[in-house]
Amino acid sequence: MPCPRTEDLCALIDQALQPAQATALHDHLQTCLVCAQQLQSLRGLRESLQALPAPVLDAQFGLRLQGRLPPRAQPRAPATAPPARGRTRPRWAGLAGWLPTGLGAGVALGAGVWLGAMLLGTAPAAIQAGAPASAAMVRVFDPVPPGGLCAATELCRVTKGMP
């Protein structure tokens, strides 16, 4: 048997090994002096740790512990250069960074309204010139996609006038 890991020796001390494993480990310890010495040092460590006094955890424990900690360093604000004399930044300059976002949101909102009007058939006649005016286009919003399986029959019924 190769020399066991330290975890196995600790498990032997804690009596957490299966009986077959413990027997094999005891047999190895009979022949290997290095492992036997390591086991003895681990047993001594366990005994010295058990001899330590248990800390008193009362309501004042946090205050005592906090008194031992070094004070926290306060984060420093980044150094900024003062504005040049005679030049001040206009109020709207901070909003210029939001311009692309605002434009993108406006275009997306406008496109959504236009597509919704096309699907519902409420768009002006000039826009609807080439679009079919049937309500079948609204079927894309059905809870069950075409060819999908229904969980409830009332969701799958085809209403009158819709294919």
Q: What number is the mean pLDDT?
A: 77
Shape: flat
Total beta-strand segments: 0
Instruction: List the secondary-structure elements in sequence, H or E.
Output: HHHHHH
Radius of gyration: 39 Å
**Largest sheet descriptor:** none
Quote the distance from N terminus to C terminus.
77 Å
Strand content: under 5%
Describe the protein's architecture and organization.
- The chain has helices at residues 6-13, 19-31, 33-51, 61-68, 99-120, 153-156.
- It is flat.
- Among the domains are: 6-51, no CATH class; 110-142, no CATH class.
- The protein has 163 residues and is mostly helical.
- The model has no long low-confidence stretch (mean pLDDT 77).
- The longest helix has 22 residues, at 99-120.
- α1 packs across α3 (33-51) and α2 crosses α3 (33-51).
- Helix content is 45%, strand content 0%.
- The protein contains six helices and no strands.
What is the gist of this entry?
The chain has 163 residues and is mostly helical. The chain has helices at 6-13, 19-31, 33-51, 61-68, 99-120, 153-156. The chain starts with 5 loop residues before the first helix and ends in a 7-residue tail after the last helix.
What is this structure's SSE topology?
Elements: H1 6-13, H2 19-31, H3 33-51, H4 61-68, H5 99-120, H6 153-156
Helix pairs in contact: 1-3, 2-3
Provide key terms for this protein.
163 residues, mainly alpha
